[in-house]
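Quarterly update, task 2.4: uridine-5'-diphosphate-xylopyranose-bound model.
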Amino acid sequence: MAMKVTVIGLGYLGATHAVAMSKIGHTVIGIEPNQAKVDSLNSGRAGFFEPGLDEELAAQLASGRLSFRTSHDESSKDAEIHFICVGTPQLEGSLAADTSYLHSAIRDLAPYLSSDAVVVGKSTVPVGTAALLTEELNKLTGFEANLAWNPEFLREGTALEDSLSPDRLVVGVTSEHSEKKLREVFAPMIFAGVPFIVTDLATAELVKAAANAFLATKISFINAMAEIAEVSGADASQLATAIGYDERIGNKFLRNGVGFGGGCLPKDIRALMARAEELGVGESVAYLKEIDKINIRRRQRVLNMLTEELGTLEGKAVLVLGAAFKPDSDDVRDSPALEIALLLKKAGAIVMVHDPIALPGVNKKHPELATEQDLLKSFSSMDAVVLATEWQDYRQLDPSTIVGINNKFIIDGRNVLDVVKWQSAGFKVLALGKTIKN
Ligand code: UDX
């Protein structure tokens, strides 16, 4: 049955979730204090690149079920569910997550909350946060509020698809009433066969942290093998294929290269370490320090390879292909590609950055970096090229069409290039995790 819901916080998670909830038939009010963001959403633009999202946003606005506003008003009072989707970024100068946006969302919501409505947190949080928020909400409202936790596992680039057909739905609840309401709001997905896991608050919070820690560990595991492959003549990509055939290991998330980045994996493993430390079990996830270090070392490895090839980085023109942390996204948060460009600049290289869609973000955050929107032009006068984000544009590029380059040398930082094709076009090709004969 269609319900009325609010979605609080309209970043990547909230905007996508609001559209998805409207698409499955609910009436949705999206709430976000940033007026510019609300205006943009009301005009059908999410404000970030996500394939298919703007089109679906426009369709849902046209359906009349979806609207956005800057704060709660009377219309929030009869909503049956309030989804909280605010960000929990890494705290400045600490590994821990900043949960202050959650507390302000709760404070803003309390005057409009009815006693049978359910508040559902979706943000990624340190385990124990939901219990604290429940206490706070009870104090603010004067009644036993229903607070549940429903972590979101969406990936950028496939966010809408992931929201509409998730691998699983996990709900942490403290009452039958909350479970009933959550079963109702997710009914179309449950009907379609999505596994629905009902648990306590702490487990629901921890599921998300654990999933991201596991994914980060898989990537750093294969990158650690890549470090061994590089000094022993082995091939880490073939190694990944070979171990991936074992169903217990699986072949996903075993692509070696310049490593993981983005708004989730790096901050979530750090927040888990910080929370475990607070709880007195820091040693249980101390290995994540190594996972983080292996990941960061891959970026430096690219600089070392360039220095070895060019003699020095000082004054050398280097093109970095890619700025987004992964393809099909314009997100440059904690991006390995962008970090490589910045490290190169710091080392004295003349850096040029290309990305099919993420350049506006780069220009805004790092005006000191030169950028070029035209892919073929970006090769002009370069002494070296680093492929750092595996966009289709780079995989499909015919290297024989590249002209005006100073030195035909490319490092494949994501192991996606057709080496023979690039070598036939006169390029010397090196890659991470393997030795290539040139
Ligand atoms: C991640 C989780 O996958 C998602 O479930 C969670 O909700 C949010 O965090 P996302 O940040 O969108 O999603 O990116 P993801 O696809 O997981 O990739 C993360 C990073 O790992 C990217 O930088 C990607 O390039 C890198 N990666 C991924 C690898 O280096 N190797 C791989 O094999 C896979």
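Highlight for this quarter: Residues 201-232 form the longest helix (32 residues).
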